[in-house]
Amino acid sequence: MPAETGALSADLRIADQRWESLGDLDALAARVLGHAASQMKSAGEISILMTNDAEMHALNKQWRGFDKPTDVLSFPSDGPEIPGEPVHLGDIALGYETSLTDAEAMGRPFEAHVSHLLIHGFLHLLGYDHIEPEDAKVMEPLEAQILAGLGWPDPYATGPYADGRGED
Description:
Helix content: 40-55%
Strand content: 15-25%
Number of strands: 5
Shape: globular
Number of helices: 5
CATH superfamily: Metalloproteases ("zincins"), catalytic domain
Radius of gyration: 15 Å
Largest sheet: 5 strands, mixed
Strand order of the largest sheet: 1-2-3-5-4
CATH topology: Collagenase (Catalytic Domain)
Structural class: alpha/beta
């Protein structure tokens, strides 16, 4: 189902029904990514896959060479822009079990953590990264600023992300 967010449209596919525990996922994605797109002055379209750890494990192994599941993966588009058509920014995939386990381990509401993962993935689609400490010093404050605008606290202020490890 497409979720319109103004300057950004998101095509959301739910491959694991457990995600529906969050309620209206289209509305959540539209609110979170619409706010992120507004803050980043970005427009275009993205695809979001809400799946499980088995699929995330396969994707992580195939595309990143890591033989384990993960919470979020981003696949920036490398396709050409088509005049008159929205720019396809890329795809984001979220894994249910790892996302839920991480949220519980951090004592964060699941919706807050999923919001963070969507923002994190979206920033990767825009070219931001956090592998190098200098890059993390740019990307992580952006994530915290966008989350704050949604009423969520800075995930890097305390807990496991405070050491700069990030999601990936």
